[in-house]
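Request: Give me one sample?
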Amino acid sequence: MSAQALVAALGWTLLDFLWQGAMIGVETALALFALRRARPQARYLVLCLGLLACVIWPAFSLVQRLGEAAGGGGFGPLAGMQGGAGAAGAGWEGLVRAHLAWIVLGWAACAGALGLRMAAGLLWIRRAARGKGDPAWQARLDRLAGEFGIGRAVRLRVVEHLASPLTAGWWRPVVLVPASLVSGMSPHLLEALLAHELAHVKRHDYLVNLCQNVAEALLFYHPVVWWLSHRIRVERELIADDIAARTLGEPRRLALALSELEKLQFSTHHLAQAANGGDLMSRIKRLLRPDAKASNWKAAIPALGLAAMSVAVFAQAAPAAPSKADTTAIADFASCAKPHYPEQELKQNHEGTVTMQFRVGVDGRVKESKLSQSSGYPALDEAALTALVKCRFYPARTAGQPVEDWTQVKYVWVSK
């Protein structure tokens, strides 16, 4: 088989996938609509089958074209229908055929770049997996792995400059934990995040995610592939949340851990990378009120739009005084701007943690605020209080009904 025939077969296969992928996307979207109130496992299965079809269909088409080329047959778009295409069809087909080599070359260059990026990520994970561990947290992880019924050894490594916990490896799984969480998060909540990661290990999610990355690299030019892959990750996080909450027996504990994770990312005064799984707002609300989505699925649409506009959306809100509320108020940072670092304080590298208390009404608005603990610099205290008092909150709830309650929020000023 000549190189020209190989390029032609590959080029027409790539072009045909434009309509093939669109058909798969429409069918998958219809299936998801029918399963909108089903468990995330059902939607996850449909999405995985859709992405698998995106890989198998063009692969089958390519093999078929290569077989026809080896047998001396011709091939092109919509094979068998070209005879009646007319002059117009011949014109556009001839134009595409004349530039087919450039199309394949451009695809190969982009796919190769994405492949190199994936390889660099795998190398980074491999180096991180050889880093330092924490004996105390390793012991906790081993105990949790036993509760999950995981027989294999799961390593834990503490990593600098990581936004959120990450699970890697299938044969020898490793959980990478940001150093900032080990030092800055309550052990009780960090353990809940580790339980979420162990749910991924139990389900071999890393292997599925690796296959997704390959599909994204090969079929990068089709938006349906990226949509399917994104939705797979969203549903995967929901499934892991369910498994972790069921094993811990405390859905609210995992919800608070997720909101604490976003608070730590938000309060460092740096642009934080979004945590895997995307919409933490929906995940937290789902853990706290699991029946809300089933009763009215349309209610999630405004929340999704709001989450897409935010850089980091949640901060943990623990009550400042004993409360009878079932859930605490949680700040929605999509509704307010980040505090502005006072120029004079920034020049002098003044840093510190401000602790504030807010009385949140049933409408989610702040009715009263006060400083609980100063950062040591009045200008930083005032800047944080002035900005965060404008935030909207998800009010505390008792028996499912919103109630007025006090909540506490911390903001960490970091000048570097």
